[in-house]
Design brief:
The protein is of the alpha/beta class. Helix content is 34%, strand content 12%. The protein has one domain: HUPs (Rossmann fold, 3-Layer(aba) Sandwich), CATH 3.40.50. Helix 1 crosses helix 6 and helix 6 crosses helix 7. The chain starts with a strand and ends in a 14-residue tail after the last helix.
């Protein structure tokens, strides 16, 4: 079987991405990050869910981006409510996060002699982050093949797979449901309470709730309130 490194946060999109990689015949090497995020419950979900997904190896790396800050997810900045117009890049954007995470995934892929990396970015129902766009994925793919020994020696060509990038949230949920994903074991909220319940008002919660509603399914996770429905 071919090996693939999959960026896996424990959220809805990345969990769906793991299932897609497995359905395409890959051995999945899942990579998660403890990066100082305020919503670390998703990492707990990732650790719990990884064995059930049939992951070959689950690696959790510590990268303290709280020392850099600049985001409501990595600094003492309040998480805002949703911006339905996505009129600006929100304060929940973590500077260069996907560039950093993909760089670690690329390093692990080179060691594993894998040329396939999966990331669950989405450019349809998303928060307006610049590192979720097709242009970013294309640029990183070019860089990956220029910046590695394996690429320069022409041992293979790296591919950054982004199977969700052109799907709506409802389409992602339908895809995962058809593959048997239990979305109760995922977490998406930026600002959960001490019991781990999703806030129901942040951008990520609103997108998730609207996605489940459009998909014709009930979101199985616990919410403090469900303002997105």
């Amino acid at each position: 079987m071919k090996k693939a490194v999959v960026l896996y946060s424990g959220g809805l999109d990345s969990t769906t991405c793991v299932a897609i990689a497995k359905s395409q015949g890959y051995q999945v090497y899942a990579l998660s990050f403890s990066y100082g995020q305020r919503h670390s419950i998703e990492l707990e979900k990732a650790r719990d869910f990884a064995p059930r997904l049939g992951i070959e190896q689950h690696l959790v790396l510590s990268v303290d981006m709280r020392q850099i800050g600049g985001s409501a997810l990595t600094a003492d900045i309040d998480v805002p409510g949703a911006d339905p117009e996505h009129s600006h890049i929100p304060i929940t954007y973590v500077p260069a996060r996907n560039s950093i995470f993909l760089s670690y995934a690329l390093a692990w892929a080179e060691v594993l002699q894998s040329f396939d990396i999966f990331i669950g970015v989405n450019a349809v129902d998303y928060s307006g982050y610049p590192d979720c766009r097709p242009e970013f994925i294309e640029a990183f793919t070019r860089m990956a093949n220029l910046a590695t020994k394996a690429g320069v020696d022409q041992q293979g060509m790296y591919t950054i797979h982004s199977p969700l990038i052109h799907l709506s949230k409802a389409e992602i949920i339908r895809t995962g449901t058809e593959m048997g994903i239990d979305y109760a074991l995922t977490h998406s909220c930026y600002d959960p309470d001490s019991q781990g319940r999703a806030c129901g008002r942040c951008d990520s919660c609103i997108l998730r709730l609207k996605g489940f509603q459009a998909a014709g399914h009930e979101d199985p996770v616990k919410y403090q309130s469900r303002t997105g429905e």
